[in-house]
Amino acid sequence: MGKQEFIFKQFKINQDKCAMKIGTDSVLLGAWANIPSKGNFLDIGTGTGVLALMMAQRSEARIKAVEIDKNASDQAYINFKQSKWSSKLSVINADIENFNPDIKFDYIICNPPFFSSPNSDIIKNRLIARHDNELSLEKLLACVTRLLSEYGKFGFILPITQAENLISNANIHSLYCTKKSFVKPTPQKDAHRIMAELQKTKSDCSCETIIIEESGRHQYSQKYIALTKEFYLFM
Questions:
Q1: How far, in whole angstroms, is CA 127 from its chain's centroid?
Q2: Strand pairing of 40-44 and 105-110?
Q3: d(Cα 183, Cα 208) in Å, to the nearest integer?
Q4: Which of 17, 88, 165, 173 could covalently link to 145 via disulfide, CB atoms 3.0 to 4.6 Å apart?
Q5: Listing from the earlier edge strand, what are the strands of the sheet with 40-44?
Q6: Fold adopted by 5-228
Q7: CA distance 77 to 35
Q8: pTM for this structure?
């Protein structure tokens, strides 16, 4: 998915100015998230804006997207403006820790940075996009707690270890897991990601497994097709 323009069924994404291109993680999360039909939504670290645009397609919500990198926020702005939902989408070039809106959000979504140590060969904006040097998972939880409405939900995707750590640490912030999906590339491989939703009230946590490719390269599982068919042109 590294090409400079990615075309979905109802919108397209320009990504030449973004360090991190569209990947399966974001598309899967945007399709899987249990968003309400209306309300105020927030996309933390929006990058190209793909998660915000997917939520715009799926709802009548007003959506704010926050992005610390100026090039990426400019890219998201362009992608929002060329979409048919431009009136309900806005992007803010800011550090989420300094973002202080006058509203709380009914759904917060994030495909967080997940590498904990830097690589000197990677350019700075890619570091910001992919590493937790700028926004640790602990800081992310603090921001979510501050910005989430009383009955709102926070959806994210992370590698297994980081996801389990975040879910465990969330209890300190009075955030509790209500939904968790293990993502497996194929039936034979171990799960490599977890998608989860947290909220401020305790509840039983449902658990499932999603397999991406079931019987060979590009032979997608029925569950994956059902989730993403409203977005991918090839589904």
A1: 18
A2: parallel
A3: 9
A4: 173
A5: 89-93, 62-67, 40-44, 105-110, 148-159, 193-199, 176-184, 206-211
A6: Rossmann fold (3.40.50)
A7: 22
A8: 0.91
